[in-house]
Amino acid sequence: MRERQQLPVLGQPQPERADAARNRQKIVDCAARMIAERGAEQLSLDEVARAACVGVGTVYRRFGDRAGLIYALIDERERHFQAAFLNGPPPLGPGAGPEERIAAFLRGLVDHVFGQEELFLLLEKSSPKARFTGPYAVYHTHLSALLARARPTAEARFLADALLAPASAGLIHFQRTERGLTVEQIKDGLDDLVRIVWRGSGLR
């Protein structure tokens, strides 16, 4: 059976030897268990190495830093989400108009982030490079492409960042815990934002 390839967004080296793949999975499983028991804030690569019975150097070589390990932990759900908006059925996938696809993407992104909120919060607290690379870079490219097709004269890269900002884990967490908003209300608010951008940009 062919070994499954990882998405480039996750930044994991490929292909892997069988022993390297086993070590990687052991490390990821230990990290997931530690997060379930103690929370993501306490995640330490040194402790993960000890729990997985591998050398600390192995963990650092394999993942680089804590952000790299977080990418590995969100990998499976990230694959499914990316497959849905790149190749899935409309309106999230191809086949719908740009506004409809962007609205569906942002709603899907809120669900995706909320489903792994603790990990995304931890990722956003990592270095700025980690915050805006990885999955974020794929989301940004996807939105930029939709915006550029709809209005070639717009600064699509800026608008993509502007639309992604309200879907960050930190803001979603704040809106839920401090503002008292539900996830559905947050998604409805993003729908309103997309409509405002469309009308204000003359896209209708």
Automatic annotation (TrEMBL):
Domain HTH tetR-type: 21-81
Domain of life: Bacteria
UniProt xrefs under InterPro entries: Homeodomain-like_sf (IPR009057), HTH-type_TetR-like_transc_reg (IPR050109), HTH_TetR (IPR001647)
Keywords associated with the record: DNA-binding
Annotated stretches, region: Disordered: 1-22
One Pfam family this sequence matches: TetR_N
Gene3D superfamilies assigned to the protein according to its UniProt record, in alphabetical order: Tetracycline Repressor, domain 2 (1.10.357.10)
DNA-binding region extent: 44-63
Name of the protein in its database record: TetR/AcrR family transcriptional regulator
Lineage of origin: Bacteria, Bacillati, Actinomycetota, Actinomycetes, Streptosporangiales
